[in-house]
Write a structure and sequence with these properties.
Elements lengths: L1 E3 L2 H13 L4 E6 L5 H13 L2 E6 L19 H10 L4 E3 L3 H4 L18 H4 L3 H16 L3 E5 L3 H13 L5 E5 L19 H6 L2 H14 L5 H12 L6 E9 L14 E10 L2 E10 L14 E2 L1
Helix pairs in contact: 6-7, 9-10
Length: 299
């Protein structure tokens, strides 16, 4: 595996690979790799010839009160993990390489970013879209792989690709979880032992709501209430949001209709650590319908 820190060098390599007819797959990350990242890298390896993993903690997607400076970093460890996962190039530029004149230009995301995370983290998705567009232009991939855990981000990326005419296929792979259901996240390292044992309540809340939907519950506020009630069994847990919506456009009807694809979204604080998670479920067309499992999303 080669480590690249300069945009021009990365572009030159990618242009050469393209000229040779090789399929380039990008896995964008902010580092501090865990098994979820490794799964994405291995998925990328199965999709193309050359895997580029970007490692860049993007300052423009952090608000002033967020954890940019404290975000976990361990470049040596990440390099070893990426190499072991079969990554060909680790693209790890410095901030002044990606923003040589500061944040002079940026992408503004519309309605799809105005809810949920967009309310709690104003400007976050503008920063995400801007850096992803830059990474696309730096690495010139044919395919890019993202994880389902950041669900709203995946819809933002799909809209970005469509609106800016990027000729890139987007692959969304399912969330990787620990044995008790907690979604893999670099921020899990912040949890104390007690907080870590309490964190599985997020997955339990998603499951409670999922089961209600599969049993025919279609009232959105009732579904939301199930998640809220489950989360509140943990003293001190602070809910940012626990909500359900249409999985494709984030519409929030009073009632969902049979066959509608629903996303359940949770963001909450356990102690000082903010965690997010989600689940996808289809409201059955009849109560005898079999539950629909997650199918990897390829655009």
């Amino acid at each position: 595996m080669k480590i690249i820190t300069k945009v021009r060098e990365m572009q030159s390599i990618s242009q050469s690979m393209r000229a040779e007819g090789r399929i380039i797959v990008l896995v964008p990350t902010m580092g501090y790799f865990h098994e979820g990242h490794v799964t994405l890298m291995k998925r990328a390896k199965s999709l193309g010839d050359i895997v580029i993993t970007s490692l860049f903690v993007n300052p423009t997607q952090f608000a002033p009160n967020e954890d940019f400076t404290k975000y976990p970093r361990d470049f040596g460890r990440d390099s070893e993990i990426a190499a072991g996962a079969g990554v060909d190039y680790l693209f790890s530029p410095e901030p002044d390489e990606m923003y040589p004149e500061g944040v002079y230009s940026k992408i503004i995301i519309g309605d799809i970013a105005s809810k949920f995370e967009g309310v709690k983290r104003p400007g976050h998705f503008d920063g995400v879209a801007t850096i992803v567009a830059k990474l696309f232009n730096a690495t010139l991939p044919h395919i890019a792989v993202f994880g389902q855990k950041d669900y709203q981000q995946t819809l933002v990326i799909k809209r970005l690709v469509e609106d800016f005419l990027f000729n890139i296929k987007i692959v969304i792979s399912p969330t990787v979880r620990q044995t008790d259901g907690l979604a893999m996240s670099s921020r899990n390292i912040y949890l104390s032992t007690i907080e870590r044992s309490n964190a599985d309540i997020i997955f339990k809340a998603l499951n409670e709501a999922t089961n209600a939907i599969l049993n025919g519950e279609k009232r959105r506020k009732f579904i939301n209430g199930i998640m809220h009630a489950t989360l509140r069994t943990i003293p001190g847990l602070q809910i940012d949001y626990a909500t359900s919506s249409d999985a494709y456009n984030f519409d929030e009807p009073e009632e969902f209709i049979p066959g509608q694809r629903i996303v359940l979204l949770i963001a909450c604080y356990i102690g000082k650590t903010r965690l997010i998670d989600n689940a996808l479920v289809t409201l059955p067309s009849s109560l005898s319908a079999k539950p629909e499992k997650f199918v990897e999303d390829i655009q």
